[in-house]
Amino acid sequence: MAEHMGDMDKHLDEDLIFGLAEGGLDAAARASAEAHLRNCAACRRELEAAAGYFKEIAGLEPVKAPANFLAHVRARLPRPSPFRAFLDVFMKPLRVIPMQVALLTILGLTAISSYLYQRGGLNKDAAGVISESPAEPAAELPADADVGPAPAAPAERPESVAGNPAAASERVYQSMKKAEPDLRATSALSRSQANGASRSRVEAGSSAKKSSQTLRHIPGQAQKGQAQSDQDEAMRESDSPIAPDRAASLRAPAPASWQASPPAPSPEMEPGPARTEQPRAAKEAAKNDAVKEKKAEAKFGPVDKIGDKSKDMEEVPDSQVPGNAGALGSAEPPAFTVSLAPGKRIGDAVSGLKAMGIDSLSARSARTGGEPGGGGIDYIFQAPASMRTEIAPYLERYGKVEVAGLPAAAGGASLRIRIRFLP
Amino acid sequence: MEPGDEEDFRWILAFKSGREEGFNRLVLRHKDRIYGLCLRLLARDPLEADDAAQETFVKAYHSLREFRMESKFSTWLYRIAVNTCKNRLVSRSYRESRNRRDPETADADMAHTASMAPSPDQVLEAKGKREKIEAAIARLPEEQRTLVVLRDVEGRSYEEIGEATGLNPGTVKSRLNRGRGQLQEWLRGYFLPLLILAAGGLPWIAWLAIMAGGFPRGDANG
After folding, report:
1. For A333, phi and psi rounded to 5 degrees?
2. What is the ipTM of this complex?
3. Which of A182, A290, A364, B117 is the right S-S partner for B139, CB 3.0 to 4.6 Å?
4. Distance in angstroms (rounded) separating the CA atoms of residues A345 and A251
5. How far apart are CA A324 and CA A412, in angstroms?
6. In this prediction, what percent of chain B has a pLDDT beyond 70?
């Protein structure tokens, strides 16, 4: 190719020629080149040659790579580790499903599962399943809050347990035996009140059934050798509402306010309202029973259960009560008579006693009018002898307490005491 | 962005996410172009071109995870191929120059290229126009050959060629046109007889042949 000078007055250089043939010149350069071509045959021949070149080059057929080219390339690549190969197989679904969709799906399923699990937990609680935590009001409340105002000296207090136990306990024991037949007559009414729950059948049935499970500690383990220390330890470790070191602070005279205000009629004595009160108390008692049962089993060994409350309401054979063999049918007088303070409930008191290790054998309504303290509910408890001094101070938290005297410890191991709660 | 470039990026992302299939797809899409480029840059040596093309993809495999997709994948691949072929030419020429023990060889690359490229006679002997053009391309110096193949054969833009070769677009144009001119001149010389025949110059060829004494003459003496 003849060398062309870049001067437009002479000939077009090869850049312009090829640019013009390729169509890559801007408008100004193209116009100038075309103006020159009109007057220069040599440049026109060069332009035709350049166009021919492009035509020839464009006619070149594309080249095909050799066969199995990809296989040869892969053969030269490093092989992935077995772990990587396993990961590729394991993650194969993600090749179809984008990673983002998979992550969103996993997060959504996790959220739904947690929501359903929480709902299931709530429904479980609503069904009245007894929880593990011992909801004992007596244990949770501080002593000061439950006791109320500073107790003043009681106006009348027949006897103090700590003062004269021997003669009073004997008298009480005899009177309790005599009162036994009267209490049996009221067992049917108590049973109907307990069973006539106004709440759901699940709550009433479970609570009635579980609260009726009377617990008896097999005396062997807890009362061998260091019985006193074991009981104290059980009281400290359990949710006992009263610590031994605080018992003295509670042995204060009942406040005057308790005496001044006459006890209101117990709603529990009315057929109608009593039905709502009994199931509630029974339910709470049932919860506490279950908790106590588990703790007792852990500490004192297997617990022997005595059937349903309904059965116990009628009769608890004395022969089944440790330490009371031989005494049958006699209703002993109440060792303690508690006039409930306003706002205090029998169920709370009973729950607390059970937490202390005092077993509730039965509950009977005393409807024998005319007797002192008649019209209340009697509870018969089986208490370890070591807790003689703990009962009265505890009961004083719920109202005015009249102590008739504790019976003698049957067999030296346990007491069978009757506590009457007056509304 | 062209649809082909988008597909390249999609397979690159698949490869980066751990799917080997992404790399396989890229090889299948660009193997013919890279092989053709290597074949023409390496003076039509099929074995060398195959090996160079495979080496190009192997290098791309090891560097693909760091590829940031700021330019076209094909441009990036072309650059690897050009450098691979250049290294092969340099190493080959170094080995041959060392074997020849010719200290006066100034441009080992040019000498090798000249030795590997077909001679003008071989170009003339090549059958068909395509072979002639291929042979002429193979005769070009390496740099001009690279530019001609990338621009006129592969159809790359000046910017892409600049990225692949490391030259600015202005330099690409000037050196490219120089190579085109050389090619054109060679092809003109090759194709001139065909042009003449196509223009109906056969009688002229006959006349020239007679004038040159190509036809036997009668002898008066017997």
Report:
1. -70, 160
2. 0.73
3. B117
4. 20
5. 11
6. 73
Cβ distance of B187 and A60 shorter than 8 Å: no
Asked if A73 reaches chain B (Cβ–Cβ under 8 Å), the answer is yes
Residue B99's pLDDT is 58
Contact B187, B132 (CB under 8 A): yes
Q: What pTM, to 2 d.p., does this model score? A: 0.43
Contact between A301 and A225 (Cβ < 8 Å): no
Q: Three-class SS of residue A379?
A: strand
Condensed to tens digits (0 to 9), the pLDDT of residues A227-267 reads 555 555 545 544 444 455 554 555 545 444 444 445 455 44
DSSP of A98-130 = -HHHHHHHHHHHHHHHHHHHHHHHHHHHHTTPP
- SS3 category, A27: helix
Are the beta carbons of A70 and B178 separated by less than 8 Å? no
pLDDT of residue A194: 53
For A143-157, b where at least 16 C-beta lie within 10 A, e where not — what string?
beebbbeebeebeee
Task: Please state, in angstroms and rounded to a whole number, the distance separating the CA atoms of residues A293 and A7.
Answer: 114
Q: What is the CA radius of gyration of chain A?
A: 48
Report the residue of A4, A20, A57 to disrupt the B interface, i.e. the one with the largest count of B CBs within 10 Å.
A57
d(CA A150, CA A257): 10
Mind giving me the DSSP string for chain B?
A: --HHHHHHHHHHHHHHTT-HHHHHHHHHHHHHHHHHHHHHHTTT-HHHHHHHHHHHHHHHHHHGGG---SS-HHHHHHHHHHHHHHHHHHHHHHHHHHHHT-TT-S-HHHHHHHHHSPPHHHHHHS-HHHHHHHHHHHHS-HHHHHHHIIIIIS---HHHHHHHHT--HHHHHHHHHHHHHHHHHHHHHHHHHHHHHHTT-HHHHHHHHHHTT-S----TT-
Measured distance CA(A210)–CA(A283) in Å, rounded:
8
Order of all β-strands in the sheet with A359-365: A359-365, A377-384, A414-422, A336-340, A399-403
Chain B nearest CA to A63, separation (Å): 5
On chain B, the residues whose CB falls within 8 A of the CB of A70 are: 24, 27-28, 31
- Rounded to whole angstroms, the Cα distance separating A354 from A391 reads 11
Which of B27, B50, B152 has the CB atom closest to A70's CB atom? B27
**Which residues are registered as beta bridge partners of A364?**
A378
Given a contact cutoff of 8 angstroms between Cβ atoms, the answer to whether A327 and A361 are in contact is: no
Q: Minimal Cα–Cα distance from A36 to chain B, Å?
A: 20
